[in-house]
Amino acid sequence: MKQVIVVGAGNWGKNLIRNFYQLDALAGVAEVNPQLRDAVAEQYPNIPLFTNYEQALASETPAIVLATPAPTHFKFALAALEAGKDVFVEKPMTLKTSEARQLAEYAEQESRILMVGHLLLYQPAIRWMREYLASGKAGKVYHVATQRVKLGRVRREENVWWSFAPHDVSVVLDLLGNPSLKQVQAQGQAFLQPQIEDNVHVDLQFESGQTGHLHCSWYWPELKRTTTVIAEKQMLVYDEVSQQVTVYDKGVYEDLSNRDEGSWSPDVAESEPLKLECEHFLQCLATRQTPLSDGWNGVAVVEILEQAQALLL
Q1: Side by side, which strands form the sheet with 244-252?
Q2: Residue-range domains of the chain with CATH
Q3: Rounded-to-integer distance, Cα 296 and Cα 275, Å
Q4: Is-contact 122 277, C-beta < 8 A?
Q5: What digits encode the pLDDT tens for the residues 163-203?
Q6: In terms of DSSP H, where are the helices of 110-236?
Q7: SS3 for 144?
Q8: Within its chain, how far is the Cα of 110 from the centroid?
Q9: Whole-prediction pTM
C-alpha cells in the first residue's frame, strides 16, 4: 500500500509529489485548483486525484503531506490527526505557538507521527556539522549565526522573517543542542511596504547561556546563505551557496592571544535534502520512530518566530 497523499500541488507541493512518487509512496494528490490538478494528471497519469481535502481524509491512505498555504496548516493538520492519519506539514508548522503545541500534544497523545518540513536539518552539510559538534572536537558550542540574504521575490502576504527564517531557526536550535529559550530580541526595517519587513535581525538567548543571531533580507545586494558556529576550540562555517563546510582551527589562548592553526574542509556527500527528508518521513511511518523535525521541534521554531514578530510590530 502506498503511504502518502500530498495536499497542494503548487510551487513546493510539486517537489514533494515528485519525490514521493519516485520513492513509490505516492497514493494520491489533493488539489482544488483545476489547472494545477490537470498538470499533475498529465505528469502522473496513474496517480489518483482528489478535488478537495475531505476526499483525501476519507481515503484509507495512512499519511497526509501538507503543502498548503501556512494559514491552513493548523486546521488541516489537526483534521488529519483526528482522522487517524500521520502528518507531514511544511514549514512553518503553524502561525501561533499555541496551535503548534496543540498539534504536538495531540499527536503525542494519539501516538501519531507528526513531522515538520524543516528541510535544512536534512541537508548533508548540516547533518555533518551536527555530528561533528556532538563529537566534542570543537568544544562547547557558544553561538550560532545565520545569514540568508539576497535581492529576492518580495511578498505581500508575509514579511521576510516568516518567509526566510523558519529553516534557519531550526538549524540554530539543532546545532546548539535544542536548548530552552530565554529571550528574543528583534529589529526590522520595512523599506518597500508598510509593516512588511524586508530586512530583519534577531538575537536569541538560551537558558544554557548559548546565543544565536539570524539575519534575513530579500532587499540585499549580495546572495549569501551562511551558517557560522563559534565554539570553544574551533569555528565552523557552512556556505550554502558553494555547498562547502570549513572548519577553522582557531581561537584565543588563556592569555588572550590569538591561536590560528589553519582550516580544512571535509568531504560531505552530496544528496538532495528533500529526498532525504521524504525518506526519513517514510522510515518514521514504518518504524514509528520520532522524526528529527517532530512536532515539538515545530513548536520551538514557531515560538521564536512568533516572539520575534511581536517585537517587530
Answers
A1: 181-189, 199-206, 211-217, 141-151, 219-231, 235-239, 244-252, 258-264
A2: 4-118+277-293 (3.40.50.720), 121-273+304-312 (3.30.360.10)
A3: 22
A4: yes
A5: 999 999 999 999 999 999 999 999 999 999 999 999 999 99
A6: 124-134, 160-175
A7: strand
A8: 24
A9: 0.95
